[in-house]
Amino acid sequence: MTSDVLEKILKHTRQTAMLQSTMALLEWDQNTGLPSNAAEYRAEQLTMLAGLLHKRRVDPQLGDWINQLSEQTGNQDPLAPSSVMARCIKREYQRAIKLPQSLVQAISHATSIGQQIWVESKLRDDFSGFLPCLEKIIELKRQEADCLAAPGQSRYDVMLDSYEEGATKERIRRIFDRLRDSLVPLIQEASEKSAKLGPSVVEGRFEIKPQEEFAKWVARQIGFDFDRGRLDQTEHPFCTTLGPHDHRILTRYSKESFSTGFFGVLHEAGHGMYEQGLDPLWYGTPVGSAASLGVHESQSRLWENLVGLSDSFWHWAHPHLLEYFPGSFEGVPLEQLVQDLNRVQPSLIRIEADEVTYNMHILIRFELEEQLMDGQLNARELPNAWKSKYQEYLGVVPTTDQQGVLQDVHWSAGLIGYFPTYTLGNIYAAQLYHAADQQLGGLDRLVRAGEFRPLLEWLQNKVHRHGQSYLPMQLIEQATDQKVDSKYLVEHLKTKC
Amino acid sequence: MTSDVLEKILKHTRQTAMLQSTMALLEWDQNTGLPSNAAEYRAEQLTMLAGLLHKRRVDPQLGDWINQLSEQTGNQDPLAPSSVMARCIKREYQRAIKLPQSLVQAISHATSIGQQIWVESKLRDDFSGFLPCLEKIIELKRQEADCLAAPGQSRYDVMLDSYEEGATKERIRRIFDRLRDSLVPLIQEASEKSAKLGPSVVEGRFEIKPQEEFAKWVARQIGFDFDRGRLDQTEHPFCTTLGPHDHRILTRYSKESFSTGFFGVLHEAGHGMYEQGLDPLWYGTPVGSAASLGVHESQSRLWENLVGLSDSFWHWAHPHLLEYFPGSFEGVPLEQLVQDLNRVQPSLIRIEADEVTYNMHILIRFELEEQLMDGQLNARELPNAWKSKYQEYLGVVPTTDQQGVLQDVHWSAGLIGYFPTYTLGNIYAAQLYHAADQQLGGLDRLVRAGEFRPLLEWLQNKVHRHGQSYLPMQLIEQATDQKVDSKYLVEHLKTKC
């Protein structure tokens, strides 16, 4: 009986996922080379599909099945697929039925157009051109939060919870307060040290082609499976899943900075390997889906920072780097390379920020979007608010909006409440790496030898394969045998100073 | 009242087109770099969308509206959009309701998988690996034809009519008989002439990058709008439309042959410019859709052959060619280039065949697929049947199936009855070019000066903007003030000998 209703839910959910992955292709394509005049029609297509999807998600028949399943799984092992399904799909369904179809479609249309206009506005450094879109998106997201809110729940808490179940602004605030107290002296110390260094060897002039080839080669070495994925170029890096065996990572290369493209690929490959580590048989269902955005980010940051910025990683990668870039890195000793990759300096662009200052960029966004949702701040006030926060927390001020409030894609895509999961991801990543290091008897030795498989298998076993069987923090605690604690991140960052 | 029901039909049809263009993106992506393990899921996605599409196409509500519209437009100008809509949508609807949804979905799944397996089988020259797919596709297409057939109508006529309204095998047979009688002596004469020539300057060693850049530049010069389209690489060249302003052409470059890639692009750009010349306001409706496959092919062949292989074209293009390929074409005089591009020689590969022998390749496929549909020939007998036809009509025999029966994508995609429209297209193209030449006061002078706009505008005006307002042959007759006649093609081909 359980299996009967479970089968029905599974079939329904998998068909929904199939439409969703079709939508994901429309979005991937929008970011890889949609002809310039085709944006409006693409937005209409996405809007139509968003409508079809929403209709499936609020299907009353699905609601009945979910109720039946919940009754049947009440006393069962909470880790059994049917229990996980009952819990997660019920949550999704109860959210979906609170949203009117018209609002879902309006958000889809506004964010599809919004992302196109954001790209152009960023290019022209024209915040005022983007403002009407942004105002509309914020207004729609406020409406969405109002629909979803439990009695007394704030809009921003609604948004946070949708990305990271159980997260609240109070909880995030506490995490940031503690982290900031540790980071401020670290940033001070490390910046002073970096300021004394000469020109960096990872800044200069790098051809795109060897960057792409080297990054692709490294992605393959650490375990990204190109038979089940691909790597392309885009304006704002991301990773997307278009099917159980189709995981696509996208990055942007810079001719001036080696780090931009290379660590962009490591980061997105980390996301991609998480998706590739989910059970394809459960694709499109909670058991085969990532636990949360925070856990997702832990996987990208682990490979980007904990592995990719380590001394041992470059011990292995350095000779290969010289092969791929015979000109650019000739005669650069390993020690200097690692030192320059790890420089700490307050800066303007989040995705190019060093590991130590990075979380301050998140703190700024967290505070601004909280105010945006609650109506304390208007979109038109953002550029100035942005500047004063950067002055306050990082001591640097952008002279253009391109380097300020226009730098991130998120708000144009309606992703409000998303940023804090980046810092959660950093915290989880450090804790996971620490645990793997202990359990595998020293990662340093393995990484130094270019043996990445044990680490990837450990992650697959401890994190990936569980899908949404645990709540995000439970999953990390289960994997590491520790309460979630930012001390592992702080300890790791101290080694950078 | 007319406008009311018309509005309803339009809205319905446009939403159907939106799903269809989503499907077209899934197919485009399948041909540009789908990860190898993702083929099965992509087939499932396409199958699901094919099902959704079919459900919309057989919507009884749509049937009611069509009947209402037909009654209202009975005495109206047949060129009025509502009359065209009534005629074409009724035809589509009446076809669709004859097909069971399960068959539509089975064909979609078999052809999606079929194309993937065809690519692999062709690569490995393994017809037996492809055979089970092909047998299945042929069986499904026979079932489809049986569902659609009017009393007494043969399966192959059903297939032909679906691509070119009004075409029958008797009519096609008459056209081929006449054409063959003219071509046989021409091929003989021209081949003898070509056989005396030395090595060709368009065969040898060509880097891909300048090929791509030159072809793209020329496509832009003749009028393909890259703000509303893009150019990519694929295994089997094609052109697809993903929206009113999103027309994508795909080609394959060869390092050994300049002609493969360059004329591939001209050909697909011709298709693309036709699509770009349709009225975007009527996108997804008969008034904004191409008249037929034959007319479509007339546009590609006109730019590829009538323009692209002419002496006057290369008079203009030659200096640019030398710029893009400073090594490969250095010191090659214009006359020799034109001569080598226009060599006539019976050969094995259709898409690389010269203009004169090309239609014999079509004749072979026409005869084989007619027999396949009627059950006179089994799929497993194809490789041998293929060889004996090539021996009979062209005097050459492939030693591999890669160069024989596996060379074309069509059958793997379920496109049976499609090939004859290529020859119709050649006939239309020559007739259109002849008429444009007369009406514009000499195309030679314009092409020689690189002035392609008058010709493109003439085609837009005479052909593109009419969509499906006329039946295919009517459209050509209307544009050229002549009955459709293969004599213009034969006259044109005589100049090649």
Backbone shape of chain A: globular
Task: Note the total helix count of chain A.
Answer: 20
**Shape-level CATH architecture of the largest domain in chain A:** Orthogonal Bundle
How much of the sequence lies in strands of chain A comes to under 5%
Kindly state the number of beta strands of chain A.
3
Task: Assign a percent range to the helix content of chain A.
Answer: 55-70%
Question: Could you name the ranges of chain A where pLDDT drops below 50 across 5 or more consecutive residues?
Answer: none
CATH topology-level name of the largest domain in chain A = Neurolysin, domain 3
Order of neighbouring strands in the sheet with most strands of chain A:
1-3-2
Q: What structural category characterises the helix and strand content of chain A?
A: mainly alpha
The oligomeric state of the chains shown is homodimer
Tally the structural domains of chain A.
Answer: 2
Main β-sheet description of chain A:
3 strands, mixed
Structure write-up:
The structure is a homodimer of 497-residue chains. Chain A has helices at residues 2-30, 39-57, 60-73, 81-96, 101-124, 127-148, 155-163, 169-195, 208-222, 258-277, 293-307, 311-324, 334-341, 355-374, 382-394, 420-439, 443-448, 453-462, 472-480, 487-494; strands spanning 229-233, 238-243, 246-251. The first copy, chain A, folds into two domains: 2-148, no CATH class; 169-494, Neurolysin, domain 3 (Orthogonal Bundle). In chain A, helix 16 packs across helix 20. The first copy, chain A, contains 20 helices and three strands. The N and C termini of chain A lie far apart (60 Å). In chain A, strands 1-3-2 form a three-stranded mixed beta sheet. In chain A, strand 2 and strand 3 (246-251) form a beta hairpin. The longest helix of chain A has 29 residues, at 2-30. The first copy, chain A, has 497 residues and is mostly helical. The A-B interface holds A 15, 18-19, 21-22, 25-26, 29, 33-38, 40-42, 44-45, 48-49, 226-230, 242-247, 283 and B 15, 18-19, 21-22, 25-26, 29, 33-38, 40-42, 44-45, 48-49, 226-230, 242-247, 283.
